[in-house]
């Protein structure tokens, strides 16, 4: 395993798919890792760093036991550190979360038993080694079973015990934002949003390029309040105003309202036409007029040529 400071870890099938897309971009100072119980999927993955979870026996158990077994498979694999029994087991975590590691981002869909079982334990292992741990997860659709939702909620509670940051996307809200999407397109759109969230919290995207400031931004959430996450696009005249107004209305998260937040992170994508200073002023004015206070704003700006002349804004706030 390399000595890069940032680890992006995809857990289970969905996390695997997202991290594969992220790995193509070869983000500086970052390692991409995929973890799964499916050895065949891992073997076919283009991601260089792979960790096989458990023994592959999980699929034969009842669904009620799979979450606990998922956690046990991680813990048991960690025990194997002493004997180095697994080539692609959790003996790799010793190197993965070594002294060089500063930040870990876990990605998973909590409705799956592999993801729900393993993600919280991986977070715990990283957290105990002093690594800043962030998790970006999304919850099941409204139409999925109560058992699936309960599994996700249980995993979410455990994640919050050992993460500095947990960003939750509510899958049910994606269709409301983007219209009546097909199931496949809904999954694809959810993955796009998660990838953008990863980029939003990556330290090198910020104007001041200060990793400590980024950690402080999230650690200030001492009450562990749910994060507001919104996204909006704007084009033509007043594109910045349109984009930020849409982002404040189109929440994708468990927190419904923007009002009442005190700390704001903006991730702004511009297309062929760069954002201007006046547009930044318009964005700030909309935020301050909505909140009626001067909340702290941290901003990152990047280019996305696919936007054309449009502007796209993602808001993360608490």
From TrEMBL:
Cellular component per GO, a single term: cytoplasm
Pfam families recorded = FtsZ_C (PF12327), Tubulin (PF00091)
Could you tell me the keywords of this UniProt record? Answer: Cell cycle, Cell division, GTP-binding, Nucleotide-binding
> What InterPro entries does UniProt report for this protein, alphabetically?
FtsZ/CetZ, FtsZ_C, Tub_FtsZ_C, Tubulin/FtsZ-like_C, Tubulin/FtsZ_GTPase_sf, Tubulin_FtsZ_GTPase
Chain ranges of the Tubulin/FtsZ GTPase domain: 5-204
Instruction: Give the top-rank taxon of the lineage listed in the UniProt record for this protein.
Output: Bacteria
Q: Has the keyword Kinase been applied to this entry?
A: no
Query: Is GTP-binding given among the entry's keywords?
Result: yes
Q: Name one GO biological process term.
A: cell division
* MF terms (GO), sorted A to Z: GTP binding; GTPase activity
| Name of protein | Cell division GTPase FtsZ
